[in-house]
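TA notes, week 10

Several of you asked for a full example with nothing omitted. So below is the full record: structure tokens for the whole chain, then the designed sequence directly under it. When grading your own attempts, check the secondary structure regions first.
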């Protein structure tokens, strides 16, 4: 049974909003993966430069360790765009980690990114995010949730998908 969950997807898909609400629903703690980026990664993205794998590995390892080091249920928000990134997080966490993939159309996500303020990730990097994205395969510990609804409905979809995934956890609504 998993106690670690990562809400994943491209920039602007709602990782923070959904992750915080899902953590509350599960009675857990939310960690925003963006806070674990080294300053040079944030600076690079702020300049509109996509991160390389070499930029990402230390960040993903740190994030996985941070999730593991917290007690109880932990829901993290992290792009985790490639299978290798998800494997890196799980390995660094040292325990089962279930991924919740927030799936949405490029147009929907572009509109959401265009409307938000105060985030370091510019709209210009959205195409590189989609180019990098490897949606979780059926052999991965992951569920997919469509994001074409309000936050409460998306969280309800995520809870239903987690229940249906066969996880043994008792998902009592908090």
């Amino acid at each position: 049974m998993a106690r670690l969950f990562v809400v994943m997807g491209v920039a602007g898909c709602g990782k923070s909003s959904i992750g915080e609400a899902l953590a509350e629903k599960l009675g857990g703690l939310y960690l925003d993966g963006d806070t674990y980026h080294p300053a040079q990664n944030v600076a690079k993205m702020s300049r509109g430069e996509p991160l390389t794998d070499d930029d990402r590995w230390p960040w993903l390892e740190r994030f996985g360790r941070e999730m593991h080091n917290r007690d109880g249920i932990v829901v993290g928000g992290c792009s985790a765009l490639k299978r290798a990134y998800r494997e890196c997080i799980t390995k660094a966490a040292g325990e089962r980690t279930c991924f919740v993939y927030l799936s949405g159309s490029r147009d929907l996500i572009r509109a959401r990114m265009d409307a938000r303020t105060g985030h370091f990730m510019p709209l210009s990097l959205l195409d590189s995010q989609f180019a990098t994205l490897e949606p979780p395969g059926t052999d991965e510990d992951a569920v997919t949730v469509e994001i074409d609804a309000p936050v409460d409905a998306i969280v309800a979809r995520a809870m239903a998908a987690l229940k249906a995934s066969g996880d043994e956890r008792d998902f009592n609504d908090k």
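The two ends are 18 Å apart (CA to CA). Use that as a sanity check on your answer.
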